[in-house]
Amino acid sequence: MAKTTTRKKAASKKPAKTSNKKGASRKGIVAKKAKKATRLEPASSRRPKGPAWQWSAVETAAAIRSGAISAVETVEAHLERMHAINPRLNAVVVDLSEEALKAAHAADRQRAKGGELGLLHGVPVTIKENVDYEGRPNFNGVPANEDLIAPSDSPVVRNLKKAGAIVIGLTNTPEFSFRGFTDNPLHGLTLNPWDPNITCGGSSGGAGSAVAAGIGTIAHGNDIGGSLRWPAHCNGIATIKPTQGRIPAFNGSATAERPMLAHLMSAQGPLARHVADVRLALEVMSQRDPRDPWWVPAPLAGPKPKGPIKVALAKIPDDMDVDPQVTAALRHAADHLERSGYRVSEVEVPDINGVWQTWCDIITNETVVMQEASMLKVTSEDFHKAWGGMKTKANLLDLKAWMQATAARNGHIRAWQLFFEEYPVVLAPTTVKPTPGPREDTVSPERVREIFWGEIRFISAINVLGLPGAVVPVALHDGKPIGVQLIAGRYREDLALDAAAAIEKRAGVLAHRLWEQMA
Questions:
Q1: Total domains, the chain
Q2: Which of 32, 71, 200, 241 could form a disulfide with 104 if both were Cys (CB 3.0 to 4.6 A apart)?
Q3: Is the peptide bond before 203 cis (omega within 30 degrees of 0)?
Q4: Domain-embedded: residue 171
Q5: Where is this region: Disordered (predicted)?
Q6: How far is CA 281 from the centre of its chain?
Q7: Domain membership flag for residue 267
Q8: Chain Cα centroid distance, residue 288
Q9: pLDDT of 325-358, one tens digit each?
């Protein structure tokens, strides 16, 4: 831990960088719910309780719309929180205070003129530093990427801005966003606000740490092997990894197109303290962008299943050593769902081991062929250790075997889709072990294999299926958050989020306890 402490101090002393740089809308059921939540209130209505940085995104948007608070006052409150708490966390690594305040003044002028406002008008958010933000380098945790200047905003940034959101900073990510732990030679280590001795997760660790601590109401992240759901678990917040194709993605700064399977297994998404904020952010982020050929104009809500919705509590494979507190958290989540009208049964899900192995084989072999040599030239020894560990469980495939693995992916997806016909929602663990230390993937290749295969198998496996998966916190154990995962069929994020909201209603929002602890 000596190395961790040293990095923490270095991160605290390092000043954040400041930028000098100045569609068809879907009207589905979720959109109507989001607009209803942020509908203009009487100007005399009371402000939400507590300081503005503690409000939810839904509350913040409504307060700005009603005139209970200005966008400038809102942004100033979040910037004050960021400047007070970020030095100890190193979650936000690019401070956009100057342009955020300019945007807030513009938002207030726009509201004064009247007319329609976006769903997130004046609402402070953060962006992960691995998508294009116009005029800035897309570092992705790698110092050598300083010349990759974004020619335009990525689709997710563009959609957030179009909805009126105000970006107050960019959040940390590991090198090439390829680790489950957030540390890099450019910005250093990001700490978990609950406890500096456990990881904030990765690769969206900066995003998770920031929003949990009260920096921004919504944090953007992305996920190819758990990079939204793992940080949500570690930091005690909520998220949705959407179906592939739900939220458009593109980086104009990239020097080459992404490989096919990497694109098909990755997703952009939101992290937030409240499930309602995740739902609202999903609606905003998922608007069309012609630069992504894989974007799908699917409705945000589908038909409600008949009768009490059946939930499959996933049986955990015998070779996974489950901590008793994880078992207890899953049972608590199941009880919350039962009390909310769901019918929960413990059943075996379709070949979770084979699904995970397919994910590992496909992503590893594609990376080895397309990216490994160039990545290893510009990355740290810690990256080499972590990446080497990730490869230990993968089968090295020739062309025929790789094509067979990609074909097997279709069979896995079909089996899960048929499973959802009987059980529309699956309740599964995020990890089966306590949250590890902040740099535990540099211990040994065996430890990395143990984490990905033995502990977070139910997270990474879902990426190869392209399915939506929500995470919601359930409880604290020894002062550290434990979350569970809700998985649904393709383009049924609504079912996963409904179940997550039912759990949240009874388990509460853990961030409130965190703020008391941090104070």
A1: 1
A2: 71
A3: yes
A4: yes
A5: 1-53
A6: 11
A7: yes
A8: 20
A9: 999 999 999 999 999 999 999 999 999 999 999 9
Under DSSP, the state recorded for 137 is B
**In a domain? residue 13:** no
Residue carrying the six token digits 């996974």: 320
Q: What is the pTM (predicted TM-score) of this model?
A: 0.91
Q: Give the active site residue among 8, 128, 161, 385.
A: 128
Residue that has been written with the tokens 């004050």 in this structure: 80
> Which residues constitute the domain of residue 327?
52-517
| Residue 128 designated active-site | yes
In a domain, 170, yes or no: yes
Question: Residue 383: in which H helix or E strand, if any?
Answer: helix 381-391
Selection from 263, 226, 261, 222 nearest residue 408 by Cα: 261
User: Which amino acid is residue 314, in one-letter code?
Assistant: A
What's the average model confidence in pLDDT over 200-220?
98
Nearest to 15 by CA among 102, 107, 92, 119: 92
Task: Name the phi and psi angles at 170, rounded to 5.
Answer: -110, 140
From 227, 253, 266, 460, active-site residue: 227
Annotated catalytic residue, options 19, 66, 97, 203 = 203
Is 203 among the catalytic positions? yes
d(CA 70, CA 48): 13
Residue 381: exposed, middle, or buried by beta-carbon count in 10 A (0-12, 13-18, 19+)? exposed
Q: What is the CATH number of the domain that holds 301?
A: 3.90.1300.10
